[in-house]
Amino acid sequence: RRADDAWAQLPSAPLGFSFETVTPVEASASRACLTPSGFCAPIIDVKGDSDDVQYQPQDSDVVCFRSRPPDASGFRSLVRTAATKHEQQYDLPPLSKITLIQVIEPLKWKTDFRDGDDRQFAVNRRLYVVEVSFI
Predict the structure, then answer these.
(1) In sequence order, which residues have a C-beta less than 8 Å from that of residue 40 and are 6 or more positions away?
(2) Residue 23 belongs to what H/E stretch?
(3) Tens of pLDDT along the chain (135 residues)?
(4) How far apart, in Å, do the first and last CA atoms of the chain sit?
(5) What are phi and psi of 11, to 5 degrees?
(6) Angle at CA of residue 116, ends 118 and 40, nearest 5°
(7) Kindly report the CA angle at 24 between 19 and 28, in degrees rounded to 5?
């Protein structure tokens, strides 16, 4: 999948900065995708059993998508596209508007999965909190 260069603007962007995506956006709400060191991308063995998921650490900051109810201007949350015992996948279509609402420095935030498991840990990566909208 082609990368969307607009995300690279977040480190220097002011709060309230908005951009429009040009490619689909995939996001995960899986507990296994976050460690104290940062985000880990799920890698599925396509040749074998789909239960064989490896989580590969990424050298990147973390993005939190803050959902809101839809309104007259469109949808304001990601679309759930997969739910397995290993993965909770959410997507955004191209041309979605992303707005930066908060930046939290490394180790100043903790995980909050809201999945009934109250184990939390600080993450050593910057967190960008964004809101989304699309028609």
Answers:
(1) 32, 33, 34, 55, 56, 57, 58
(2) none
(3) 457 888 999 999 999 999 999 999 888 888 888 999 999 988 877 665 556 778 899 999 999 999 999 999 899 999 999 887 777 889 999 999 999 999 999 999 998 876 667 778 999 999 999 999 998
(4) 22
(5) -55, -30
(6) 70
(7) 100
Q: Which of 130, 135, 108 is nearest to 9 (CA)?
A: 130
Total Cβ atoms within 10 A of residue 110: 13
Any residues with CB less than 8 A from the CB of 53 and at least 6 apart, and which?
32, 42, 43, 44, 45, 86, 87
- pTM attached to this predicted model: 0.86
